[in-house]
Specification:
The chain has a 3-stranded antiparallel sheet with strand order 1-3-2. A 3-stranded mixed sheet has the order 5-4-6, with no helix packed on it. α2 packs across α4 and α3 crosses α4. The longest helix is centred in the middle third of the chain and has 13 residues. About 15% of the residues are buried. The chain is flat, with a radius of gyration of 18 Å. The protein folds into 2 domains: about 80 residues, Orthogonal Bundle (Arc Repressor Mutant, subunit A), CATH 1.10.10; about 50 residues, 2-Layer Sandwich (Dna Ligase, domain 1), CATH 3.30.1490.190. By secondary structure, the chain is an alpha+beta fold. The chain is built from 6 helices and 6 strands; from the N terminus they run ααβααββββαβα. The structure holds zinc ion (2 copies). One zinc ion binds next to loops.
Length: about 140
């Protein structure tokens, strides 16, 4: 399988976009940061070490990463687009704290099974699934 770096370069070449140092830095930062960051959060993380990289560049590069299939876009009800590595076949689910925005990922074979069953019951084949559960995290409950 092609590496993420190869995938990135191939996508840029195909769309006549240059492999710039800034784009490369943003890709590396995305891959080494915690999951579910917005473009703005990634920009803030980058700013200290790379003050020459502007928010617009981070924003556009994250769009490129999403279009190329390297990143998956997620929306968790706060109007922010968040990104996580797109690992294709895995299907994890999300718990989102409505107070502090903390996001927990989990996997659950029983949920997988139930979603598969629901699709089959309607004669659908299942391509991907998405589940978000909103509530309050343990920290916020104890405030
Ligand atoms: Zn919380
Ligand atoms: Zn996730």
């Amino acid at each position: 399988m092609a590496s993420v770096q190869d995938q990135f370069r191939a996508y840029l070449a195909k769309h006549n976009l240059k492999v710039t140092r800034q784009r490369q830095i943003i890709l590396d930062a995305f891959l080494s940061s915690p999951s579910h960051l917005s473009a703005e959060e990634l920009y803030i993380r980058l700013r200290k070490k790379h003050p020459n990289i502007g928010y617009a560049t981070v924003y556009r590069t994250m769009k490129i990463l999403a279009e190329s299939g390297i990143a998956a876009e997620r929306h968790f009800g706060d109007r922010q687009t968040r990104y996580e590595p797109n690992t294709g076949e895995d299907h994890h689910y999300h718990l989102i704290c409505e107070e502090c925005g903390n996001i927990v990922e989990f996997e659950d074979l029983q949920i997988d099974f139930l979603l598969q069953k629901a699709a089959s019951a309607h004669d659908y084949t299942l391509s991907h699934r998405r589940l978000e559960i909103y509530g309050r995290c343990p920290k916020c409950q104890n405030k």
